[in-house]
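Summary for the steering committee. One of the milestones for this cycle was to obtain a three-dimensional model of the protein with magnesium ion bound, which we needed before selecting residues for the alanine scan. The sequence and ligand used are listed below.
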Amino acid sequence: MVEKQTGGGKQQKQIKVQGETLGADHHEAWQRVLEKLRQEYSDATFDSWIKPLQLVRAEQSTLLIAAPTRFMSDWVRTHYLGRMAEYWREETGDTVTADLIVDLDLAGSHRRGKSINGQAATDREEDTESQIGTPAAEAFAGPLDPRFTFESFVVGNSNELAHAAARRVAGNETVQFNPLFLYGGVGLGKTHLMHAMAWQIKQATPDRRVLYVSAETFMNQFIRALRFKDTMSFKEQFRSVDVLMIDDVQFLTGKDATQEEFFHTFNALVDHNRQLVISADRSPSDLEGIEERIKSRLGWGLVADIHPTDYELRFGILQSKLDQMDNVDVPGEVLEFLARRITSNVRELEGALNRVAAYADLTGRQVTLDMTQEILQDLIRANDRRLSITEIQRHVAEYFNVRLAELLSARRAVSIARPRQVAMYLSKQLTSASLPQIGRKFGGRDHTTVIHAVRRIEELREIDSVLDEDVENLRRILEG
Ligand code: ADP
Ligand code: MG
């Protein structure tokens, strides 16, 4: 039976193509088109989406191709059909309009083909059944970044728990915490850890099926399936994996049907004792626009947060990045400078180091602190902006246990004046504000008062180890 698909797949019109024959030259041209497609796309893509297709009819102006399911036909239409027509023209000289039909019989031959060539041998029995005529779940998978491995992940205080949990899950075939929920701000290594887990599992146990997708992909695929009334195969694909990783679930917000499906998929996998790994930029309870029952379920397993990096971790990451680069000599003081000043996230930190290295490479100059400050002006300013003088004042007041109003007052008692000087000193060190700007923020003082404060603290740090330590502690707190 062959159905002709029209009007976005809603109306189905039967057309008869049985008994049509395809010329040998067309058959050969089609094989060459397939060969080109195979070269262009990954094996997984080719096997899932293109291989099951069949050329039904070829005329000078039209190319009719059959797909085994509606779901597939739609995916192929939006992703590969244009390419097919292009290659067809290259091979035959005919400019054609390519179109797809759904041929349910193909599903049968696809299945038979699978068992004959033995591909199904690695699949579980139930999977083989459910995958008839539908693409493998892997076709949805986001690509894994080869650089994101456990080896390249630097562990520090802020990510220790998340790292340990990820290692545990990746290193065990039995379900550990379900789900493992990783959360933290942008650029702090969530995706890196998930890819690292996927790599390790794939390497240690190649027959386990690991699926990594972004919540966005999950959502788009589901909406597509809904539209083409093919939710069955969608469900089966996600439910037949051993380890499902969904990245950035904060994006699931608000789409009711998708949330519902996510919840069912989630429950089905947990019930079948499959491992789930979820990431988000905030904790389950802080997710907005997500149903309560889902939030609560997300928190059932282990919730591991990744905190903002501290100086030591940033320095360690820079060193490790540098080790992986060839022929770049970056002095320690530059690494130190970067680790102190680029505090927002690891992605920016890496970007900064890359920029400095690229600049040195292109100009043939040695990397110096001056050069680094010059190249990274904009980035440093952006990072500084995040630490305001007010914030410094607040922390210093808290640290020395004085009230903020006192810190900004004219009182000269040492117990107040010293913290005030420390706050001025730190404002000079940690922000790009000018001396007069700093003076104004401290109750409208003159810039010479600020200079005096900075000098005084510099002197005291040399001789007063307690104060020196206080300043260092504060710096650490403020730099996160
Ligand atoms: P997120 O998904 O949390 O936004 P990513 O995992 O994409 O962040 O990390 C951003 C960049 O920082 C990546 O290049 C990643 O390799 C790097 N990175 C983050 N944390 C670490 C770490 N602890 N060690 C090494 N690289 C890291
Ligand atoms: Mg990410």
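Key point for the committee: Strands lie at 2-6, 11-14, 54-58, 62-67, 97-103, 180-184, 210-214, 243-247, 275-280, 302-306.
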